[in-house]
Each structure stands twice: as C-alpha cells, then as structure tokens.
Amino acid sequence: MNYTWNWGIFQEPSPEGVGTYADMLLSGLSWTIATALASWVIAFTLGSVIGVLRTLPSRAANAVGTAYVELFRNVPLLVQMFLWYFVLPEILPAGLGTAVKQLPDAPFYTAVLCLGFFTASRVAEQVRAGIQSLPRGQRMAGTALGFTTAQTYRHVLLPNAYRIILPPLTSEFLNNLKNTSVALTIGLLELTARARSMQEFSFQVFEAFTAATLLYLVLNLVVVAGATLLERTVAVPGGR
Amino acid sequence: MTSTPIPGPSADTPAPSSAAAPADEGLRQGPLVSPPPATASGEAMIAIEAVSKWYGDFQVLTDCTTAVARGEVVVVCGPSGSGKSTLIKCVNALEPFQKGQITVDGTRVKDRGTNLPKLRARVGMVFQHFELFPHLSITDNLTIAQRKVLGRPGEEARKRGLDLLERVGLSAHAKKHPGQLSGGQQQRVAIARALAMNPVVMLFDEPTSALDPEMVGEVLDVMVELARDGMTMMVVTHEMGFARKVADRVIFMDRGEIVEDATKEAFFGQPRSERAQQFLSKILAH
C-alpha cells in the first residue's frame, strides 16, 4: 500500500479558509449532536403518543397507531430523507414550497423532521411493548381507584413502562444518533460529511475516518454511561 | 348518596415512631371505617338485575340477579370459571356487560350519563395480586388517588393514608416500595389504599388466593374487622372460615349463573342445589 501517513493533518488549515481540519470535524460533530437531540425530542414524544394509541381500548386509535408505525418503519430511512427534502417542497403549494427550499439550514430541519418521524415509529413499538408487558391488573387498579384513562397512563402505566423499556430505548437513541449520518445525502454538514470532505481535500482518508470513528464511539459511550446512570437513578427499590 | 368525612386524628392511637417500630406491628385497635356507616338496613347498596355478559359467542354470565344491602357482607363462591370474578368486576364497570343493570348506591353503572371514574372512586376494590403501584412508595400508593381523584390537599391525604397504614400495622414501612414487602403486607396496604378513598362499599376479588398460607390470616383479620365496623362488602373467596365468621349471605355461582343465594346459616346448613352440595363437600373435605 502506497500511503503517506500524516497525523499532523488535523492541525493544518482547512480549505474553508477559517480553522483547521480538526475544527471542521468538530463542527460536524456539533451538527451531529444537534440533529440527534432535536430529532429525539420528536421521536420520543410522538413515539410515546403513537405507542399509547396502540394500547387504548379503541379500534380507531389502534388503527391510527398501526398505520403510522407500518408506514414509517417500512420505508428505508434514505428514501424518507429524499421524500422530505426533494419531494415534499414540490407537492406543497408553490409559494410555500419555495419558502421551504430557501430556508436557511434547510437540510438540518429536514433531517430533524425525517429522523424524528422515522425513529418515532420504533419508539412507539417499544412503548407499546412496555405497556403490554405490565400485568393487566395495574390498569384495572388505576381504573378502580377512579383514575381516568389519561390519569391511569400518566400515573401508573407509563412510569412503569418507561422503566422497563429504558435499555432498548437507549439502543434506539444510539441508532438515531448514528442515523444522522444519512443526512449527508441531503447536504447536512454533519460528522460523516465532514470526514468525507476532509478526505477529498487532503487525501488522508485513514486519518479522517479514524477520527470520525473515534468521535462517534466516544459520543455513544458517553450516552451509554448517561443511560446507565439514569437506569440506576430511576430503579425501583425492591424491584418490580 | 353519602359522603363520609375524613376522620380526625384519634386521641387514643399512639403516634407512629418509625425508628423504633417493629417491622410489623400487627393490627391496632380502633375503627377501620370512620365514622361508622349507617347500620344495616334493607336498602340495597348494590342491586344486580338480570345481568348477562358474553365474550364473543361465549356467555360468561347468565341472568344474574342479587342485591347487597347497606352494611351487609356477601361472600361469592363457586368453582373456577364460574363467573364470580367477572360478576364482581361488573359492579364497578371494570368489565362491561351486555344485558341487565347494576345500581351502586343509587347510581346506574350502565348508563351513558354516569361518570364512571366518579362512581369507581366511591367503590373500593382489592385484587388477587394486590396491584400496588410498584414505582411508588407505600405512602404515595396510599395518597395518589386521594390527591388526583378526590382533589385532597397533600397533607390531608398523607394523614389519612398514614392513619390507615398504622391501623393495618405497617406504619414502619411507609417509605418502602411494594417490592420490599411480603404478599400479606402488600395486600394490607392495598386494603388501606382502597379505604383511604372513603368508599361506600368494598369489593374483594379473591384477596387471599395469591398469598402464602401463613399470610392469609393477617389479611383476613383486617377484612373481619372491616366487616365488624359495618362496611358493605362483596367478597369473592374460597375462605369458608371467613364466610362462616362474618358473612351475612353466601352466593354460590356455577357456569355463569347464581345457583344459590342464601343466608350463611341456610347455605352451610343445607344447600338446596346439588352443585352447591358437591362444591361444599369438596372444599370442606380437607
């Protein structure tokens, strides 16, 4: 292999004119984090609502929840990204479509929406599984005490369901974080996109992707550590 | 409709000293139901009229009719699958039924105009598997419904909850979680949780069936006291000793029908139906 290693490349000025290659990667990392967090807010809230819909004693609510989940989890994420970015502005009314296209940071907003809606379908399934794993008597006990359906979910079912699904939910958060890299296809300058441009400008492909790999790894390990801490904090004394 | 006021602190009960208190103090003196409810009368607290229920094509309840008078203790027994649990769950509309009507303290259960959460808040229910909320402390288990359903201020709800917890002999466990208590202790907390709502009637769905034998007694003791305090009770149970001790009437169910509905004396003396005779001879054989 005819390759010249150059680990000093990170200190060299990037072709953007300001900052070094290291700065470029770190800027990518911050877009990755911002996209992951913003889309998780949507994924968690919407996913919880959809998951609850699938467990309500109402056929209409179940149908809405099922339709959402099956639509959003059965179309590839990349296709969904393209649909949101390239197709949606075209089918909106002309004026609105143009405004959307001219939005500053349009790739960011699109990626947040797309990832949020996609991951919500997966969160929904976990919320549903968590609720359905609780003894039937828990819902009955809440109901028998006079709780409305909303109160039974708020005070009884969800607090227990979330505790049960915390480990798979952590995996889902990590997936969502890694999926932000798909947004490079619509022009979001996140970490993977930045590593690629570093490779193209400097030809130091190994250094660029070694750095990206390590940054993703460290970021995810921080998340895992946080989740472990959270699990310990909310653990129920005496178990369930 | 009666609304039972919350009892004040009773002067004769010692203040709980959680640090020094033994793990399980046993039952304390004093009424579980305070102030005492009106004495037994002919007036029906629960009226069940011609109730039928189906799961799809399968009929689980057939034309069930009975009544529980104010202050009366009625034991419902029968072989498994006879529909006794289903019937008791129809009383507070945990299970819907297709035909007939149930009236609880003057309120029709099957009526679009009935506010079911409000009705259920006045009907205490105790389950086979306790169903305490595992993520909440014992104190929170006792207070959450008082606060969220009845709108009681936190301090008042806490006082009421801890008073009852002391009455069932568990005040040392107020800060623990359900998973840290034995089955019998959990069930006593579950009874206290239901009583904290000042119910006009208590429903028990096989309250001792999931307990280890040595814990059955402590739960039955609370129920016996409750019955002696004049609480209206409908109890699904196989504990015939309890039935003999405190029941006013015994209902025997089989295959979704009320086969026998008799006073305790008549039921244990000479059941009229052959099915009840067979059932009794089986469970009293040991």
Summarize the structure.
The complex is a heterodimer of chains A (about 240) and B (about 290). Chain A has about 240 residues and is mainly α.
Which helices and strands appear, and what pairs or packs with what?
The complex is a heterodimer of chains A (240) and B (286).
Chain A: H1 21-53, H2 59-73, H3 77-91, H4 94-102, H5 106-132, H6 136-144, H7 149-179, H8 191-202, H9 205-234
Helix pairs in contact in A: 1-2, 1-5, 1-7, 1-8, 2-5, 3-4, 3-5, 5-7, 6-7, 7-9, 8-9
Chain B: E1 44-55, E2 58-69, E3 73-77, H1 84-91, E4 99-104, E5 107-108, H2 116-121, E6 123-126, H3 138-148, H4 154-167, H5 183-195, E7 201-205, H6 213-228, E8 232-236, H7 240-246, E9 249-254, E10 257-263, H8 264-269, H9 274-283
Parallel strand pairs in B: 3-8, 3-9, 6-7, 7-8
Antiparallel strand pairs in B: 1-2, 1-4, 4-5, 9-10
Helix pairs in contact in B: 3-4, 3-5, 4-5, 5-6
The main pleated sheet of chain B reads as: 6 strands, mixed
- CATH level 1 name of chain A: Mainly Alpha
For the largest beta-sheet of chain A, the strand count, sense and barrel status come to:
none
The rounded distance between the terminal residues' Cα atoms of chain A is 58 Å
Note down, in words, how this protein is organized:
The complex is a heterodimer of chains A (240) and B (286). Chain A has helices spanning 21-53, 59-73, 77-91, 94-102, 106-132, 136-144, 149-179, 191-202, 205-234. Chain A is an all-alpha fold. In chain A, helix 5 crosses helix 7 (149-179) and helix 7 packs antiparallel against helix 9 (205-234). The longest helix of chain A is centred in the N-terminal third of the chain and has 33 residues, at 21-53. The N and C termini of chain A lie far apart (58 Å). The model of chain A has no long low-confidence stretch (mean pLDDT 95). Chain B has 286 residues and is α/β, with parallel strands linked by helices. In chain B, 32% of the residues lie in helices and 22% in strands. Chain B is built from nine helices and ten strands. Chain B has helices at 84-91, 116-121, 138-148, 154-167, 183-195, 213-228, 240-246, 264-269, 274-283; strands at 44-55, 58-69, 73-77, 99-104, 107-108, 123-126, 201-205, 232-236, 249-254, 257-263. Mean pLDDT of chain B is 88; it is low at 1-21. Classes of the chains: A mainly alpha (240), B alpha/beta (286). The interface between A and B is medium-sized, with 23 and 32 residues.
